[in-house]
Amino acid sequence: MPTLHFYNTLTRKLEVFAPINPELVTLYTCGPTVYDYAHIGNLRAYTFADTLKRTLLYLGYKVHHTMNTTDVGQMDSDADLGEDKIMIGVRRAAERGEQVTAMDIAKLYTEKFIHDRDSMNILPPDELTPATEHIDAMIELIKILKEKGFAYKTSRAVYFDVSKFPTYTQLSGQKLEEQLEGVREEVVVDPEKRHPADFRLWQLDQPNHSMLWDSPWGKGFPGWHIECSAMAMEYLGETIDIHTGGVDHIPVHHTNEIAQSEAATGKKFVNYWLHNEFIRVNNVKMSKSKNNFYSMKDIIDHNFSPMDLRYLYLEAHYRFPQNFTWEALQGARSARLNVTEQVAILLTVHHDQELENIENHELRNKFANYIADDLNIPGALSVMWEVVRSKELPGSTKLALLLDFDNVLGLELEKIPTIYTKFSLDEIAEIQKLLDDRENAKKSKDWSSADELRNHLTQKNVRIIDTSEGPVALLG
Ligand SMILES: [Zn+2]
Predict the structure, then answer these.
(1) How far is the CA of 67 from the centre of ligand 1 (A)?
(2) How many angstroms separate the alpha carbon of residue 463 from the centre of ligand 1?
(3) What is the CATH number of the domain that holds 153?
(4) Distance 426 CA to ligand 1 centre (A)
(5) If you placed Cys at 121, which of 248, 380, 410, 416 could pair as Cys (CB 3.0 to 4.6 Å)?
(6) Which range (55-64, 87-96, 308-317, 465-474) has the least confidence?
């Protein structure tokens, strides 16, 4: 197997991947804030994390994967201001006349997220951990930061003191002033805050929030960033191999995760930081004012499958921005249906054979080299098409290669409805007889009977495809 390389945001270099424990890779992914549907930008991030995990598994690693759900503490603005997003969900429901609690909102949108995830064939993490179930661990972490002098309390919040952490801007590679540009636009509401970059570990100034917990500093709720540090360390250890997320997390959320984790433990928090780029819609940044935050519902309302969206994501390298258009999604669908049909034919023809051993096949090596090169999935897709279009490869080799590649691509190529999986044995016998009769009619050049038999099969919702390996019947 080839050597795996990743581009590490922390060092801004392509690096050889060397896990702490070669037997088990630890992987943490920032999950959804469960107050609304995931949009196509979020779904790209989860699909990227999925191809990463599948690549690790394909190359022989075992993976321990943890993902959080944020069900408290993420404010509407990165500057720790505004309204808690879960409370926005509660308010919106109230505006629709629904009386729901914060936990109802979190539960509802966690279910929606799981549904979207499964519909795109994204592998579930080993743990999907809600922030509200880990408040104690967060309080413990804040206590340590306070004891070590990295945190201070004002009347409104407990803050992390960035001046005590000299490598604070290492991940972003920016100067602190640049990093703060977004924050400066906000009105600073806490005059006791020492530095504009200091961020909230524990919120004390929202007594009307519906989720409040006791703490050594008073009743309140955690800041957003502390949850990922607490949960990543609880499940994966003080130093983890890989942490993923969107590039929007680099200057604030992930920068803060590093600061508070490393200040608390004195150890490196994450060895490899991997970030996916944005999705644009019709070449425009997604924004509230443009109303272009498409969700899975929009995809389905336009008569596309969630798997079409998955294929679209595979077409771009994760470190490059991708442009979403309905035309591009149409192209992804055509490509996906094309490969799906080719595999359906191969499965039908070779259904009674054992899969060939393609362990050392040249095209398998080519595929593996692409994915090992910082997840070059577009390159891997091109190898898939090379196999599909090949005139030299025997069908059985093609089938074995395509099903093998699908462990990484996740296009569910093995789940294709064929007459062998969807019809009863009696129906298969009947269809087989019609197929044989038609072949005989064709041999004796009785074209009208052959056409009639084809129509007969069409009425049974069976489509006949004449291939070099004989006629194949497909459902639908
Ligand atoms: Zn996070």
Answers:
(1) 9
(2) 49
(3) 3.40.50.620
(4) 54
(5) 410
(6) 465-474
Q: Looking at 266-413, list the stretches that DSSP marks H as alpha helix, in order from N- to C-terminal side.
A: 296-301, 306-314, 326-349, 362-372, 377-389, 395-409
Is 312 within a domain?
Answer: yes
% pLDDT > 70, the chain: 92
Cα separation, 466 vs 434, whole angstroms: 14
Residue 71 CA to ligand 1 centre (angstroms): 12
Tell me the CA–centroid distance for residue 103 and ligand 1, in Å. 20
Cα–ligand 1 centroid distance for 421 (angstroms): 42
Distance from the alpha carbon of residue 85 to the mean position of ligand 1, in angstroms = 15
Residues 209, 334 within the same domain: no
Q: How far is the CA of 231 from the centre of ligand 1 (A)?
A: 9
DSSP E strands in 140-294: the ranges are 151-153, 157-160, 199-203, 221-222, 240-246, 270-276, 279-281, 284-285
pTM of the model: 0.88
Do 33 and 160 sit in the same domain of this protein? Answer: yes
Please give the distance, rounded to the nearest whole angstrom, from the Cα atom of residue 273 to the centre of ligand 1. Answer: 12
Q: Do 266 and 171 belong together in one domain?
A: yes
If asked whether residues 91 and 205 sit together in one domain, one would say: yes
CA pair distance 54, 62, nearest whole angstrom: 10
Percent of the chain past pLDDT 90, that is, above it, reads 68
Could you tell me if 106 and 250 lie in one domain? Answer: yes
Residue 154 CA to ligand 1 center (angstroms) comes to 25
pLDDT tens digits, one per residue of 98-136: 888 889 989 999 999 999 999 999 999 999 999 999 999
CA 225 / ligand 1 centre spacing (Å): 6
Are 459 and 377 in the same domain? no
Q: What is the mean pLDDT of residues 136-140?
A: 97
How far CA 137 is from CA of 82, 86, 357, 432, 468, in Å, comes to: 25, 21, 48, 63, 63
